[in-house]
Design a protein that fits this description.
Blueprint: E1 2-7, H1 15-26, E2 32-35, H2 53-64, E3 67-71, H3 81-91, E4 101-107, H4 115-126, E5 131-132, E6 138-140, H5 156-176
Parallel strand pairs: 1-2, 1-3, 3-4, 4-5, 4-6
Domain NADPH-dependent FMN reductase-like: 1-144
Protein name: NAD(P)H-dependent oxidoreductase
GO molecular function, one term: FMN binding
Length: 177
């Protein structure tokens, strides 16, 4: 299964980017994950008649993927502008997210993980007709204590839970493709 991975942070040492890379490596036998570049121009309808090359490439990668993994930080109780901008581009002209299966994970240093951002993200994606894996929320709190210096997730309970969520997503995808 080819999975487009959208990380809602541009920061090089983002916990969410670290989480995405961990997922990409650990579950390589189940998912062919590709981290997409979300450093896109701000969405502007005036650009739709002559899309910037990086937007064309991004939309093609999302369109060609079998599924999408959203890895979201939480900014002011919501998703980041970076992630919202990417979703806006993916939803315009061609509906690259419609009917696409997906799942959501997120990590933060706070105690609630990315609960509020993920709730908001689910609301946004629902309007696009995405099929998001239900009842498998991954809210990694205290992320600064759960990764080692190599970027490996070292909290055994979190890894075991993530193993089950990825397995559930693979089964969800197989049932819904």
């Amino acid at each position: 299964m080819k999975v487009a991975i959208l990380v809602g942070s541009l920061r090089e040492n983002s916990y969410n980017k670290t989480l995405a890379t961990f997922i990409q490596k650990r579950y390589a036998k189940d998912i062919d994950g590709e981290l997409l570049d979300l450093n896109l121009p701000l969405y502007n309808e005036d650009l739709e008649s002559d899309l910037p090359a990086d937007v064309v490439a991004f939309k093609k990668e999302v369109h060609d993927a079998d599924a999408v993994l959203f890895v979201t930080p939480e900014y002011n109780h919501s998703i980041s502008g970076v992630l919202k901008n990417a979703i806006d581009w993916a939803s315009r002209i061609t509906p690259d997210l419609k009917e696409k299966p997906g799942f959501i994970v997120g990590a933060s240093m706070g105690g609630l993980g990315t609960v509020r951002a993920q709730m908001h993200l689910r609301q946004i994606l629902d309007t696009m007709g995405m099929r998001i894996l239900p009842a498998n929320e991954v809210f990694i709190s205290a992320a600064h204590t759960k990764f080692d210096e190599k970027g490996d997730l070292i909290d055994e309970g979190t890894v075991a839970f993530l193993d089950s969520v990825v397995a559930n997503f693979v089964a969800f995808y197989e049932r819904n493709k």
